[in-house]
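Researcher:
Attend to C-alpha cell order:
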Amino acid sequence: MGRNPIQSAKPVQTGEAGGIIPDIEKIQSLLRHYSLDGWIFSDFQGRDFITGDFLKLTERKCTRRLFYFIPVQGEPVKLLSAIEPLLLDHLPGRKILYKGMREQRRELSKFLLPGMQIACQYSSGGNVPTISSMDAGLAEYLKTFEIELISSADLMQFFGAVLTKSQIESHKQAGEAIHRILDQTFYWIRSNLNAGIYIDEWMMLKEMERLIAAEGIYMDSPPFFGIDEHACDPGYEPSEHGSAQIREGSRLIIDIAGRMPGTDSIYYDISWCMNVGPEIDPEYRRLFETVNEVRNRIMTFIEERLNQGREIRGYEVDELARTLFCEKGLDQFLMHRTGHNIGHTCHGIGANLDDFETHDVRCLLPGTMFSVEPGIYTEKYGVRLEFDVHLTEDKKARIYGPVQTEILVV
C-alpha cells in the first residue's frame, strides 16, 4: 500500500494572495497510496456541496458544468465553459475552455482514459450518504469514458476528519463546559426536589438552555433527554405540553453535544444515564450494566486491532455490538448505530460505526474521532452510554473526559 499518508491530513495551503488552495502534492501522495489514477470534482449551480467546500468555490454559482481533475502525477486540469472562464482561477492547474457539450466530451476524453480508476464523490449503493454528493446522471456520464469510479470516502477522511492538536484542545474545553452544565443541572434537580418544588422536562430544558448560554458553548440542537418512558425514544425532545414530571425515583437519560465558538472547534458528545434518588430499579441497573459491558468489549476490540496494526472498518465495530446484544437476547431493542464520526459538526464526514443504518466500509483513521454509544430501548427502559474516542497518530485510543461506569444518582 505504500507509506502511510496520515501526514497528508490537511488538503489546503495558503497561496501568495492569501487564498486557500488544495495541496496537490499531498493529494497525489494519497492517490498513489490508494493506487488511483486521479480524483475528479465537478459542480453545476452549487449542487455538489463537497466540491464547493473542498475547492473553496465562491458564492457565484456556475451555470455550465465545471470539472477539476487532479491526476496521480502531473498538473491538475481545470475544465470550464468558455462563458464562465474565471471560476477556478484560484486553483492551480492548466485551464481548458469548452464550447458546448461536444467539446466538453472531447476534452474530458483526453484525460479520462479507458481503464483508469478515478476517485469521485460517490458511494456504491449509497452506503456512505455523507460522501454521495455527485448526482447519478453525472456518474453515468463519466462511466461512458470506460473509467471505474471509486468512492473518495476514505480520501476525504484525511481532509475533513483528521484533527489537529488545537482541535483536540477545543474538544477538551467543550467537554469541561458540558460537564459543568450537567453538574449544575443535577444540582438544580436536587435543590428543587428537596424544596418540594414541582419540576418537569420542559422546565429542565429551559434551565439547561440558560446554562448553555452562560457557558457560551455552541450546540446545533438542544440536548436530547427524557424522563422514565420518554427515555425509550432516542430522539425525544421535551415540549411545553406533555413533559414528564421529575420526581424521586425517576430515570433520566441525557445526550448532550456542543463545541466552543470558532471555525475550527470540535464537538464533545456524550450520553449519560441517571437515577433521581438512590432507589434504582433492578432491571434498569441490569440493562445499564449490559450496555456498559458491550461498550467495554467494543473498546477492547478497537485496542486489540490497533495493537496488531490491523485496520478497523466502521461496520465491523457495529457488527460486533449487534452480535453482543443478540447474545443477550436484546438485539430487537436496537434503534441506532453504535457511533458516528465527530468533527466541527457533531456528525462529521469521517467513518461511522455503522452496519445498522448504513454499511460503512471506511477505515477508522489515526487522527480521527468518533463516538462509541451503544444503546437499547425497551418499552419501559432506555439506556445509552456514550463517550468520544480519539485515535491518535501513534494508534492509541484516547478518551478526554469522565467515563460513566455506573448509574449516576442525582
Notes: The radius of gyration is 24 Å. Residues 16 and 194 are 64 Å apart (CA to CA).
